[in-house]
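Exam revision sheet. Question 4 asks you to relate a sequence to its structure. Input first:
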Amino acid sequence: MNSVIWLVIPCYKEEEVLPETSKELKEIMNGLIKKGKISNESKICFVNDGSTDKTWSIISDLCKSDSLFSGINLAHNKGHQNALLAGLMTARHYADAAISLDADLQDDVGVIEQFIDKFHEGKEVVYGVRSTRATDTAFKRGTAHMFYKLMNAMGADTLEDHADYRLMSKRALDGLAEYKEVNLFLRGIVPMIGYETDVVYYERHERFAGESKYPLKKMLSFAVDGITSCSVKPIRMITLLGFIIFLVSIAMLIYFLVLHIIGHTVAGWTTLVISVWGIGGLILLSLGIIGEYVGKIYMEVKERPRFIIESFYYGQEHFFDIKRENKV
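Answer key, structure tokens:
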């Protein structure tokens, strides 16, 4: 079954890893073409997310030298999720399925054939899931498990130990295109699409060059975005908390009235201070959570573009306006 498969790889300042990444992916794709698993029209598509180093220059040279490579250059840095979406939304016009993965080769490219086999079996979405976290530090392993548990507890339907290494069929990509939100959290959106899914397990490798683009600060921000983009549970929790505090305040009012009536009124300085600071802190926390949602509404109603493509290499053909292809 000669399906057209695109590999979509978002890149931000990846000049150190691209030469090795492109070499390994080329070997994988050529091997699959020889086996008849994929069409020779398949592509390795690098998406440059506004990098300030030589990333786009390297991608351009790859595209000029080999038609197996394709490149998308975004006009501005829009973040990993938007860069990935730009690649997937382009791929859906050319490919039968697209596989997204990171440029650092931490995702095991050796299982790409398994993704394609499951696609040929009729699966519309195939998730890459880590089989173990043995290479992670205890802190990272613990925080990762907390992240997925928190996401699911807050109502975001995510698959544990799955990042953005997945295959999506054209049908699934067309479904993804129907989701218009600006605040993207693809790990939560893709499961909402439905269709038949499957899982491929793999071991994640160490990053062989460059630096991680997701330090702890970004991971925490990513978690907040994921929760507030996919669930309103935090707001409902605030409502429940407010109701509980209201009941406690009624009980305390009755208690102090009884003390006053029987003549045992005592100056409650400690109680007063704790109450003021406690309730004040809850109010500020509640306002912060509500503000997070209001901010997201603000960004959504503006309807700003999620990405703008500056130029596009379809193989060795270079287009400054992607729409000239009349396929996008």
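Marking note for examiners. The chain has two domains: 5-216+305-325, 233-302.
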